[in-house]
Design brief:
The mean pLDDT is 78. The protein is built from 8 helices and 2 strands. 53% of the residues lie in helices and 5% in strands. It is mostly helical and 202 residues long. It is globular and about 60 Å long. Helix 5 packs antiparallel against helix 6. The chain folds into 2 domains: 107 residues, no CATH class; 78 residues, no CATH class. A two-stranded parallel sheet has the order 1-2.
Length: 202
């Protein structure tokens, strides 16, 4: 006996074909919305648990792709094992990287992220060289002379990095999409623990 219904099959050519709730009309309306706000906007899809939000998002995502949009999908609940969601979110942008092009822009994003979030930098070090070395590096950073001066310098660098990050990210996306905006889905946020959900929103 099955305790959970299987997800409806989403056909590539006609993603809303198996939708029994006639949600194609909502997908078309939302497609007009994202087309109108080509400079960017944020929307939230609200509904009770089990009402089919994720199914609708996946159908609409395919509908957008069929209409010439590029899309990215981040499942916050499945990726909440990451200490800093910024890593997972930016990793999704690799999916629109053109394989034949040199990955200079994406590498620039990574460098800026490490400046913006030292915890991300430490996590990368830990992954590649181990916990002990990561702790030594972290301790060395914390006990450097003239800590206060360095904190001010770090603040100034991060402030500049935020501006550079936004500019670099905008350029990275602009070079890889057509006239239609990129649509980035962040799903299952309501299933995450509150602390992680807030970090994703930040």
């Amino acid at each position: 006996m099955k305790s959970k219904l299987e997800d409806p099959k989403i056909e590539i050519e006609n993603p809303f074909k198996n939708c029994k709730l006639n949600r194609l009309r909502y997908g078309e309306i939302l497609t007009q919305v994202v087309s109108t706000y080509s400079d960017g906007c944020v929307m939230a899809i609200n509904g009770k648990w089990g009402s089919g939000k994720t199914t609708f998002v996946k159908m609409w995502k395919q509908h957008l792709e069929n209409s010439g949009f590029k899309t990215l999908y981040f499942n916050a609940w499945e990726d909440d094992f990451i200490s800093d969601p910024l890593v997972g979110l930016v990793a999704k942008f690799k999916k629109i990287e053109e394989p034949k092009k040199v990955k200079i822009k994406f590498n620039s994003l990574i460098e800026l992220i490490c400046k913006l979030s030292p915890s991300v930098g430490k996590a990368i070090i830990k992954k590649h060289v181990g916990e002990d070395v990561a702790n030594i590096v972290d301790a060395a950073l914390q006990t450097t002379s003239e800590i206060f001066v360095k904190e001010i310098e770090a603040y100034e660098e991060q402030s500049t990095s935020i501006i550079n990050f936004r500019r670099t990210l905008t350029d990275f996306v602009t070079e890889r999409i057509n006239t239609k905006p990129l649509v980035f889905f962040v799903d299952e946020l309501d299933r995450c623990n509150p602390h992680y959900a807030v970090k994703v929103l930040e």
